[in-house]
Structures are given as structure tokens and as C-alpha cells.
Amino acid sequence: MYRIAKILAIILGVVGLVIWVMIARDENPAGSGMVDLMINLGYYMTIITAVVTFAFAVWQLITHPDKLKKALISLGAFAVVLVIAYAVLASGTNINLDSLAQRGIVVDEGTSKMVGAGLWAFYLLALIAVLSMVFAGVKKILNN
Q: Can you tell me where the transmembrane regions are (predicted)?
């Protein structure tokens, strides 16, 4: 599967290079339709890359149960952070909805709570990342 993806990427890269050269040599590239072709090629390459990446990730999880276990534990920890951010930390009532409505911004308490939960989740995940780097650094220093 990796070889097929690699061959397909090389073929699409060569096609993109040929189209780019044709666009660069054209005096009116917007009128020739080549720009649209190049944009569509980029679009399809992005889709193919995403599908292949997802397929390889799923394949690795299926063929290595220990990696699947670690991935599920990580997803569970992420879900716990999201639940804590939404249920405990975000209130949704700490903004003036009337002043936003006067400016034409339609926001309700649910939307405000979701935005707050997203911010709190980001802060918690950033804190966890920093603490884990500090912990790893201290552990490395103490082991030497």
C-alpha cells in the first residue's frame, strides 16, 4: 500500500510540475483554464494524502494492539479534559449577550459555553504539555 501511495504521489507531482511549467509559459494563464486544473490537482492531492494518512494510521492500530491500547488511553484522557473543561470550568454566563446583539453578533449561552470550554481545554492541554516537558527534563537531569 505504501508503494502504491508513493507511486501515485510521484505521478501527481510530475503532472503538477508539467502543469506549472505550462502556466508559467502562458501569457494569459487565467484564460487558459490551466490554473483551475492546477487548483483541482492540489485539491485531489490533499484528499488523497488525507485518506492515505488515515488508512496507514488505522492499519498501524489494527496490526499493533499495544499501539491501539495507548491510542485509546490517550483519547480517553483527551475526552476527560474536554468534559472537565465543559462541565466544570466553562460557564457561558460571563459575557454580556445584549451588547453583542446590539453589534449584530448573535450569540447565546450555549455558544458562549462551547467557546469557553474550548479555551479552557486549550489551556489545560498546554499546561499538561509544559508540565510533561518539565517533568521529563527533571527526570533526565536526575538520572544523569
A: 7-25, 37-59, 71-89, 120-138
Report the alpha-carbon angle 71-59-54, nearest 5: 80
Q: What is the pLDDT of residues 43-73, one digit of tens each?
A: 888 898 899 889 988 998 899 989 999 999 9
Those residues whose C-beta lies under 8 Å from the C-beta of residue 132, and which sit 6 or more positions away, are: none
Q: 91 CB contacts (<8 Å, ≥6 apart)?
A: 113, 116
How far is it, in rounded angstroms, from Cα 70 to Cα 37?
A: 42
Rounded CA separation 20/41 (Å): 11
29 touches 35 (CB < 8 A): yes
